[in-house]
Amino acid sequence: MVTNMNTKTPNTLRERWDQFKLEHPSLRIREAALQLQTTEAELLATQMGSNTWRLEGDIKEMLAQLPSLGYVMALTRNNEAVLERKGIYEQISFSGNNGLVLGPDIDLRMFLNTWKFVFAVKEGARQSIQFFDETGTAVHKVFLTERSNESYFYQFIDRFKAPIQTELLEICSEKIQPTPERPDKEIDVPAFQKEWRALQDTHDFFGLLKRFQLSRTQALRLAPDGFARLVPATSLRTVLQGAVAQQLEIMIFVGNHACIQIHTGSIYQLKETAPWYNILDPELNLHLREDALHQCWIVCKPTRDGLVHSLEAYNKAGENIALIFGKRKPGKPELETWSTLLNGI
Prior knowledge:
Number of helices: 10
CATH class of the largest domain: Alpha Beta
Order of helices and strands: EHHHEHEEEEEEEEHEHHHEHEEEEEEEEH
Shape: globular
Distance between the termini: 42 Å
Oligomer: single chain
Number of strands: 20
CATH superfamily of the largest domain: HemS/ChuS/ChuX like domains
Strand order of the largest sheet: 2-8-9-10-3-4-17-16-15
Radius of gyration: 21 Å
CATH architecture of the largest domain: 3-Layer(aba) Sandwich
Structural class: alpha+beta
CATH topology of the largest domain: Heme iron utilization protein-like fold
Number of domains: 2
């Protein structure tokens, strides 16, 4: 845990932010924070008293109240991908610092140990509840829609509004850094490959990486023959186009260190708006920065139900951008049309 804290003078930052918005009215707050060398949470904090409220309390309790907002849009992103899915928060549960949302539309895996700051925001007609980690980076956002329970949004604010609406935030000044890769020569590659071949469930893959202290891309490089194949970065677009053409139901995973969001179902409308490649469906939006795709892999994992194939996309730092699987249920084999699509790349 990083303990170095940083607080910025809010008056100066507010003035810079106000001027920046005048000069760049269409730029999103995440990009503005990068250019202003600050954080998105700190920029929001400067707007308190102007349709922005800082919330406090048990984050698990806040999440447990989200179903009362009704039909909303859930958003999770990393630097290269944004997944937006409309629906209702359902089947919320917690185990320690981990949380699950298992609705048919909104499907989340949450790692709450770094969730720290929460804001309610009203920007014109757009209302949202936004969650940030200890570094001031957004980890998950909830936006109201025309079908949401707007009155409960204000009840939510009243329930969790911080008694002192201070603009000063205790931000961890050092960003979370990935663990450096171990040299390949220190890895027991034959043992690792043997355990990969013996996998019984795709969820066991994370434990395999942990036991051998491997990053995901290092594991793919050291995979058993035939179980991981490097393919062109354009393969992600190819797979999405194939899913649309064949009306394959797929699973799209997009996340960051604190939250993973999953869409399961068919996709329909694809559109390029460089550098982004997009799914633009009524209930689902996915935005992918194709210029940031450094590596794509076709990955195969054994399970009790047979082989399971996925497309995995990574940036230059080896961080996962998105994972795409064919839709399947436990106890049933993967659809042959899905594995054929991937094996054809």
